[in-house]
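Troubleshooting log. The previous structure file for this entry was overwritten by mistake, so regenerating from the original sequence record. Sequence copied from the archived sheet and checked twice against the printout by T.R.
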Amino acid sequence: MIKAPETLTKRSDFVKLNKGGKHVRAAFVIRFDRNDIGWPRIGITASKKIGNAVARNRAKRRLRAAIRACHPKLMGKAIDINIIARTNILDIAHADLIQDLTACFDLIGGESA
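Regenerated output below.
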């Protein structure tokens, strides 16, 4: 069984990614940077630009489901990732979301190595 990536929880980790990490744009913004712990950690951000609390929670649930579908691409990578939802995240089909996220994880894997 493949272990799921851990979650970023500390504000300092998110701030580090916003200041020093690179980003790849798709239907969401991904900020990432290498870490020293040896395994991937992922955080999800949905601001009030997405909508009310119901819309923000739905966006985060959709992103978590997409991450579960394609997180094996990150195994073995020492990387911190912050996925920032954009306003159109709720209108995109789930299959397209998974495809975009997989493509971004492939790019990130190549750049962080």
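DSSP finds three helices and five strands in the chain. Archived copy saved in two places this time.
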